[in-house]
Amino acid sequence: MAKWTAKHEAPEPLEGPVVATVTGGTILWFALFLVQLPFYGWFADRGQLWWVWTCAAGGFLGLIGIWYVRGRDAALKRHAAEQAAEAEAEAAGQDGQAGQAGQAGRPGPQA
Predict the structure, then answer these.
(1) CA dist 109 to 101, 102, 105, 106, Å?
(2) How far apart are CA 111 and CA 109, in angstroms?
(3) pTM flag (> 0.70)
(4) Concatenated DSSP letters for the chain?
(5) Between 16 and 111, residue with greater pLDDT
(6) Which band of pLDDT confidence, cut at 50, 70 and 90, is reported for residue 10?
(7) What digits encode the pLDDT tens for the residues 19-59?
(8) Among residues 19, 45, 77, 88, which is most buried (max CB within 10 A)?
C-alpha cells in the first residue's frame, strides 16, 4: 500500500478569540446542566440521566479548557513580545554598526 502524501500545503491555523469561545462554551454547558436539574426525576424515569451528567462533565472539562487556553494565550503573547524585542535589538545593532562604519574612514585624533 502506497504512503499518502498531501497535494497541498496545510493552511495557517485560524486565530480568534479562543479564550472567549471556550469560556462561552463552558458557560453554556453549565447552564444546560442547571436547566436539566429540575427534571432529574423525569430523566431518571426514562433512563436518560446521561443527558444531565454529560452537561456537567462538559462544564467541568470546560474549566480545564479555560485554564489551558489562557495559558496558551499568555505564552503566545510572551513569545510575540520576545520576538519584537529581538527585532528591535537587531535593528538598533544594525543602526549602530552603520554609524560606526561611516566613521571608520575618518582619521582619528593624532596623539
Answers:
(1) 17, 16, 13, 10
(2) 6
(3) no
(4) -PPP--SSPPPPPP---HHHHHHHHHHHHHHHHHHHGGGHHHHHHTT-THHHHHHHHHHHHHHHHHHHHHHHHHHHHHHHHHHHHHHHHHHHHHHHHHHHHHHTTSPPPP-
(5) 16
(6) confident
(7) 999 999 999 999 999 999 999 999 999 999 999 999 999 99
(8) 19
> In three state form, how does the secondary structure of 86-107 look?
HHHHHHHHHHHHHHHHHHCCCC
Residue with cell string 453554556: 28
Residue 101: pLDDT band by 50, 70, 90 thresholds? Answer: low
Q: Residue for cell digits 480545564? A: 64
